[in-house]
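Pasting as-is:
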Amino acid sequence: MPKNRKVDHPIILGIVGDSAAGKTTLTAGIAQILGAERVATICTDDYHKYSRVERAENGISALDPNGNYIDILEQHIQMLREGRPILKPIYNHHTGDFDAPEYIEPKEYIILEGLLGYTTRAMRACYDVKVYLEPTEELRVRWKIQRDTGKRGYTVKQVKDSLTKRKDDSINFIQPQRTFADMVVQFYPPETNQEETGAHLNTRHTLRPTLPHPDLSPILDAGAKNGLRLELSRDTDGKPVDVLDISGTIEDKRAEKMEDLVWKLIPEAQHLRENVGKFTDGKNQSSVSHPLALSQLMITYHMVKAALGHHAI
């Protein structure tokens, strides 16, 4: 715990996005940077009301708030914010049913990732940092097919049928939560390689003024040809935002310069540098992505600054 910590409650990060948007990968990396012993990670999808069989029978998808115990999730987030333990349900994605609940004590940092984490105003009031993940739809579909066939036992047809069935729920329930995020992170393939799904994906950060973002000007001096570009833009709602683009082909030295800049702003995590940017690729092999590493670091920066009272809500 930082010696100059200014807040007396756990720092809570929200990561919301559609199914297979990359939430778990991003969450795992941030937890590693901060130190696993200091982080409690909670999947809000554990609060489903119905098993997979029941959803098939009643036609209510996991993306629909009516298919989830939103009231209990809201209550649990508030309890964690107050430093109180919870008894969290567990939804088993392999069996499609529920396992025994898990007793969770709040830690210095808490990450809540899932589909519906920003559904209510009371929930949103508990977060110190809110992130929304929105990979391009084509990329998300590829990620979902890759994950659900490789890890959850589905066929490609079953995954595609599920995506079709959930399309309206995604539009009605998941995507509207984007508006509440402090930072929107989008992974997308480069124009020269539309088939890219891993280490060389580009990343775009939409940085809203709801948080004081780090000053990156020392390394943003020569434009996009060096792999980094920061510009003032307009968000989908017309409001002004900063947009940071990170190329998937950014040179190692330039990426390291940016990483160094952010690391210097969070010195308490220096000893965990080797953990940043790691992920498991489509061939189930460990790989490293500079855009992913920089995304994890930017979010970690905000969590540490929140702990120091720099942008208390």
